[in-house]
Amino acid sequence: MATVASDLEQYQPTEEGSLGAARFLDKMLGTLWDKGLTWRPTLDPKDLKHHAMRAEDRAPKEGCWEDRLDILTQALDEEAKLSPLGRAIAHGQLVRKIRCRIRAEAQWARNPAIRDRKVVAPLIIVGQMRSGTTRLHRLLARDPHFVHTRAYETMIPMPGGGRIDKRPVTATANLLFLRTLNPLLAAVHPTGPYQAEEEFGLHAMSIFGAQYEGQWMVPSFARHCETCDRTGVYEEFKAVLQTLGAVRHEPEDKPWVLKAPQFTQDLEVLHEVFPDARYLFLHRDPVSVVGSSASLAWQQARVQSCSADRDAIGAEWLHKTKLRQDRQRAFRQAHPHVPALDIRFDHVNEDWRREIGRVYDFIGRTLDPDVEAAMADFLANSKAHKRHDYDIRDFGLDPQDVASAF
């Protein structure tokens, strides 16, 4: 739990955990590159697009995503302080996202009716990182009334060719690899290939948002994503949801339950694209949110950088959290009649059945006893995971200063 004391004299950094596998790979890759024994991955946008085009045998369409790719790759070179392993991971991720774009464009060209599928009254969970959105999302995902994205779909939104969908196997391998590189990630954000997962990977196809900002220090890219026109991003986001629904043969009138902290800073455009959406707004004290968010970003960044800066990460997530809160307040003031329910993190801790009951009253449904039992099983299993320990002072932040900023 984040400390609420302002006395820094007693402060001791929390345990970082071992990164032996990551540092071994850094050394090995650096040696191979220096000796010319293997190819050094490029972050040049033209080369990334070329690799994706060669793998998919077609080119992606031009668009604003290319401007964001230019900004992101420059930030990776100049700001992220990538290690050799980090550079290899960044190259692979960006090529995969461009390949997903190519697959999506091909799918829409073959079957334009996909873009006409309805996305009816989605239930959208809105909250800061580390505010309990994942818990609520996974509870509601136990109800077959809702459609939700699974982790393998978030990691690889578009299936490739062939009769067998290889995405679950690929996602499983990727998750095992990440846990090997930093075992603490499983405590910070436990997941599995079929687990309900937020839609950050759908945004990443547009070279946008939290998947990139959460694992690399790329502040120039983050500032661009905060201020650019995001309409096209969310139109593509909706199109990918329509495609996933079609691939899975989901009924069009079956509502999605969606969750991504990114939504908190993009509510105006989200509302434009999904005008009949219903919102669940989650709240947690900002000191805990900032400290836990910085800890997650730190655990991601230190895998891919040998010189990740804790204080810089703390300052970045203080900025992001404040920006998102301000935008959420502005949205709700501008749209007081949008259907919305407020839920507090500590209230869910106290009595999750009561809070889930409030959700079902809000959406006008009766909670099925079998669904409630499945929710209880999920929470019981979740308690077996290692607790996420952190201290906000690890990131150069005083708890009282953070509290006063909000």
UniProtKB/TrEMBL annotation:
SUPFAM superfamilies: P-loop containing nucleoside triphosphate hydrolases (SSF52540)
Listed InterPro entries: P-loop_NTPase, Stf3_sulfotransferase
Superkingdom of origin organism: Bacteria
Transmembrane segments: none
Alphabetical list of Pfam families matching this protein: Sulfotransfer_3
UniProt xrefs under PANTHER family: OMEGA-HYDROXY-BETA-DIHYDROMENAQUINONE-9 SULFOTRANSFERASE STF3, PAPS-DEPENDENT SULFOTRANSFERASE STF3
Listed name of the protein: Sulfotransferase
Organism expressing this protein natively: Sphingomicrobium sediminis
